[in-house]
């Protein structure tokens, strides 16, 4: 029987399984420069570290930060609880067909009346249905992927639910007990697949983690038909951005210098090791300020592609110096205008 305290606390968890305010994982692609890997190795970063660390775990095991965080749902039977809620969403869900009617967004929420986590990621067909247990999809091995987990107090999930209205996510599995229904009316709409109310083009919302870290959440609906990076995020943050997104050859948007703040496409990534890989083997979606004094880093959902101009989704941004330095140093080469 579970005991009260840390064992039952819903939280992002570090590589040792201990509660942590936030973590970021960078799953390495199978094909790296001068090397063929497993596609299951990953770099890990949280507030206790100064730079990326190569994990001793593989991402397809239930060990490590990701497996430990999701244990509250899987082996912890959180999906059967009447005192906690969870929502799994993915435009390419496991076991179901991809449909174009939803936002290009992937993530998971799990929280109770005290706190919980919001996991934003780029992995198709993940996470699996809770009753099936933890696993990693075969499609997650080919390309690089990012996963960003933040622990929030309960009140922040009311704001996150509003942001998700703009995301219009494909919710493929959820539990939202009666105790949450009134305050989480927006989330209830998404979970039930109801016709969504008319919403404006975009919404910017500040979020504060459980330990007081400040984030900015950018959420755009399909009514905002423009590139989220160039048209909105770079201009709102007042910073030139280097962007790493998966770009298909016939649909990619070029670097953009037509607006006051520029957006430039990253073409090669380098991580400690040394590990290097080309952007076309990287399915992650992130951007970082070009200049160190601006210090912005954002992770999220959308690619810089012509077809995704019309898609809903978002980014969560931070000025944390550790996060900024880790991602800025990961830029090996980018295309100027």
TrEMBL record:
GO terms for molecular function: deoxyribonuclease II activity. Keywords: Hydrolase. Pfam families: DNase_II (PF03265). The keyword Hydrolase applies. InterPro entries: DNase_II. Its EC number is 3.1.22.1. It catalyses: Endonucleolytic cleavage to nucleoside 3'-phosphates and 3'-phosphooligonucleotide end-products. It comes from the Eukaryota. It is an enzyme of class 3 (hydrolase). GO terms for biological process: apoptotic DNA fragmentation. The keyword Hydrolase applies. PANTHER family: DEOXYRIBONUCLEASE II (PTHR10858), DEOXYRIBONUCLEASE-2-BETA (PTHR10858:SF2). Belongs to the DNase II family. This is deoxyribonuclease II. It comes from Aldrovandia affinis.
